[in-house]
Amino acid sequence: MAEFFAMGGHGFYIWSSYGVTFLFLAIEVFLLMRKKKTMMQRLARIARMNKK
Amino acid sequence: MQMLTKAFWLQLSTPKAFYPVAGTLAPCFMMLAVILCVIGLYIGFFVAPVDYQQGNSYRIMFIHVPAAWMGMFIYLVMCAYATIGLIWNTRLSSMMASALAPTGALFTFIALWSGAFWGKPTWGTYWVWDARLTSFLILLFLYIGYMSLQAAIDDQQKAAKASALLALVGVVNIPIIYFSVKWWNTLHQGMSVTVTDAPTMAPSMAWSMFIMAFAFWMYAIGIALMRVRTIILERERHAAWVQDLGNKGANHG
């Protein structure tokens, strides 16, 4: 297991590349889902204001 | 029949009709991306052998090369949408162009980042002003310029037009990137995979790379569909159907 993560001495370079790649892709998905949610909330708030 | 299909596509190209379709398709593409990614990485780490020259560091190529392909490919698709929007003034095309830009920029950044972490153990340096690396950095700046220009102009139509022109001028950079390793004999290695020849590497390595490229491709489509939905809501917020969505939300919350 430790041998796998060491990658023959290249572990640092490999996991830095893979780590940043998948972290950033996950952040992109997370930010978009959050944006969608806040926009739906804003639309609902405007709708409520218009009703009053 | 032909009339019908034409009417169907025209209908689908309105933001209102596309919004629910994108909502259904986006999770499907994301699922595909995850499945392909797992397969691609499994082959890349457990099937593909160690490279006799580079050792294990070459495994960075399984994300570096697909990310670089996507960085360039998304730019071309973005340009195509921007041009269609520019010529026919179709709102959804301009929205798709805007939806692709951040993801294209992200893949370009990932290509540069993973390239740096491959270069350090292989070339002995994270960065060098080589033709391929420099033209790829310019690609990142083009994406950033495109997004900044859109953000800086309040009028949506003007923003779409100005940024489309910027994207079109910048498209000259794509063949420069592609051929840079041929035209200038600097540090970055030549193409291991070309359109015409078989890849010059072990089949399992090539498979991992291709499957990862498909995974990134599916991810890009999925995320662009997700983003175009938020853009539609933002730009069409005065339309009756968007306000109806708000009404539904108000009744539930």
Key features of this structure:
heterodimer; A: 52 residues; mainly alpha; 2 helices; 88% helix; rod-shaped; B: 253 residues; Four Helix Bundle (Hemerythrin (Met), subunit A); 9 helices
Explain what the structure shows:
The complex is a heterodimer of chains A (52) and B (253). Chain A is mainly α. The model of chain A has no long low-confidence stretch (mean pLDDT 92). Chain A contains 2 helices and no strands. Chain B is mainly alpha-helical and 253 residues long. Chain B has a single domain (32-237), classed as Four Helix Bundle (Hemerythrin (Met), subunit A), CATH 1.20.120. The radius of gyration of chain B is 21 Å and the shape is globular.
Instruction: Kindly report the oligomeric state of this protein.
Output: heterodimer
Span from first to last CA of chain A?
63 Å
The domain count of chain A comes to 1
Going by helix content, strand content and strand pairing, the class of chain A is: mainly alpha
Largest sheet data of chain A: none
Number of helices of chain B: 9
Counting structural domains of chain B, the number is 1
What CATH architecture of chain B would you give?
Up-down Bundle
| Helix content bin of chain B | over 70%
The overall pLDDT average of chain A reads 92
What is the radius of gyration of chain B computed over CA atoms, rounded to a whole number of angstroms? 21 Å
Low-confidence stretches of chain B: none
Poorly predicted tracts of residues of chain A: none
Describe the global form of chain B: globular
Q: Topology, pairings included?
A:
The complex is a heterodimer of chains A (52) and B (253).
Chain A: H1 2-6, H2 11-51
Chain B: H1 2-12, H2 15-47, H3 61-88, H4 91-123, H5 131-152, H6 156-170, H7 173-183, H8 203-235, H9 240-252
Helix pairs in contact in B: 2-8, 3-4, 3-6, 3-8, 4-5, 4-8, 5-6, 5-7
